[in-house]
Amino acid sequence: MRPNLSPRRVGISALFLMAFSLHASLVTAADTNDDRAQRFIAAYERDIRPLDTTLALAWWKANTSGDDADFAAKVEAENRYNAALSDKERFAELKAIHDGEIDDPILARQIEVIYLLMLGKQVDATLLQKMSAKANDIEKAFNVYRANVAAEELTDSQVRKVLSESKDSARRQAVWEASKGVGSAVEMDLKELVLLRNDAARQLGFKNYHAMQLELNEQDPAEVLQLFDELDALTRQPFADAKADIDARLADSYGIEVDELRPWHYHDPFFQQAPSVYETNLDEVYESADILDICRKFYAGINLPIEDVIERSDLYERAGKSPHAFCTDIDREGDVRVLANIVPNEYWMGTMLHELGHSVYSSKFIPDSVPYSLRTASHILTTEGVAMMFQRFSKNADWLQEMGVQVADPQAFNKAGATMRRNELLIFSRWCQVMLRFEMGLYNDPGQDLNKLWWDLVERYQMLTRPEGRNAPDYASKIHVVSAPCYYHNYMMGEMFACQVHHTIARQILKSDNPSKAYYTASEQVGAFVKDKVIAPGQTLSWNDLTQYATGETLNAKAFAADFSDR
């Protein structure tokens, strides 16, 4: 049977502490399942670890260069890694160990994590290679694509600049439509990739790829959907009220009626962020600020320094390089890097706080005493949560001034920033509804009219009006559908985790009775809490056990609701 790792059996604190102590040798007359688990893990690390590092380096090089040869090397590294994880004999040995009783909870946790990883690879090797090659081709298309408007190529930052500043509706529409052009470029490949992924999932006995991805990430699809239904009810009216105010301000700024607003009138290509519609321009303060220096000062002030990460990173725009932002842990030994395309504005201030937040929640600060297979974030939602928790301060004038940045009118900045923060929580929640439900529909019935499904969901959850007569694969212009499939709901769950941890820090460390206004600057106690209660356990705890360990409660929406509710 599968090992029971619940806090009722082991106790969260006990399980956590075991990750930092030497495991007692098992003195038994016979070869135990714990002995077999230890040997399996040693062999697994010996064989898989170098392949994992090679793949991470190849992935980094491809995304920083955009060269065909580098992408080909990335595919080759993926194939070697996948082949090792898909080894049938190795998996059969693992399954036998996994299905038996394991007394040592840290050994049991390692076996569980490795089992879920390898289970997802137990498909035909040729199919795995096809999936990898197809995803690689699509990612490469995203990296080299540039919106083309009147024979002018625009970078992603230039697209965002037009959408955030231009008052010309025709210009906005042309740039927005051009930015979506990548969807048409990758549509057919993406559809083929979806079918390949579903084939792989069904080979393993799952309903489809979406259901498989959630279950392999220790999430129950029905429970996730129930949580998002609750979020829908929680946010629908507050979002409608906030959007009505935003719409009125947007329409006035463009000199049009509210009912003439279309998706290109919002300041983000997907309306996943709050438009800047208030008198205070949050970008102005960053025009002459050094974003990297602010990040250095902030993370050093809470005793989570990131100077070494910055030195290894690739942070500014150039042709061929991925236009997005991400953080990667190369070797689980501290080689952590960030890819970014910094522009001096509030968006990139928040983005760098976010990505460097990922960097501290990594092998950089997870102790070496945590076993290699567990020396990573508890879950993708918890690392997203930590990143989001630090990202929030880019809209806080008090925080900025503590960082040495002068703000002309701090009161106005804070008022606009707080309103934008509230709106962003609501807007992002609704956007995540679209992504979760679209991907569920995509993998459940890939043959349906996906353009219609996309815009039906956009209208229902984001309350945007679809462009009249448009029938284009706009869903395919979101890179996460390709490169991070069935992932996006974790951003929303991460936001709930972020709010829950932040409220705990505000109460316990900062002694604040108003978490929405609390911020961190030179507070080593904050860094110590994050390091000890969130980062240090690594993956020794599941995401919900970690949430309880850090905050005293399992994941819930109470803190999230408090952050956007009227006070």
Strands across the major sheet, in which order? Answer: 1-2
Largest sheet, strands/sense/barrel: 2 strands, antiparallel
Distance between the termini: 49 Å
Using the alpha-carbon principal axes, give the shape: globular
Q: How big is the Rg?
A: 24 Å
- Secondary structure class reads mainly alpha
Report the portion of residues in β strands: under 5%
Contiguous uncertain segments of 5+ residues? 1-29
Q: What is the average of the pLDDT values?
A: 91
Number of strands: 4
Q: Which CATH-level-2 architecture of the largest domain?
A: Orthogonal Bundle
Mind explaining what this structure looks like?
The chain is mainly alpha-helical and 567 residues long. It has three domains: 12-122, no CATH class; 154-279 and 427-483, Neurolysin, domain 3 (Orthogonal Bundle), CATH 1.10.1370; 284-414 and 489-564, Neurolysin, domain 3, CATH 1.10.1370. Helices cover 60% and strands 2% of the residues. It contains 23 helices and four strands. It has helices at 12-18, 33-65, 68-85, 88-99, 105-119, 125-144, 156-165, 169-179, 181-203, 209-216, 221-254, 291-301, 307-312, 346-360, 380-391, 397-402, 410-444, 450-462, 480-483, 489-508, 524-535, 543-551, 558-564; strands at residues 147-149, 152-154, 326-329, 336-339. The protein has a two-stranded antiparallel ribbon with strand order 1-2. A two-stranded antiparallel ribbon has the order 3-4. α3 runs antiparallel to α6 (125-144) and α9 (181-203) crosses α10 (209-216). The radius of gyration is 24 Å and the shape is globular.
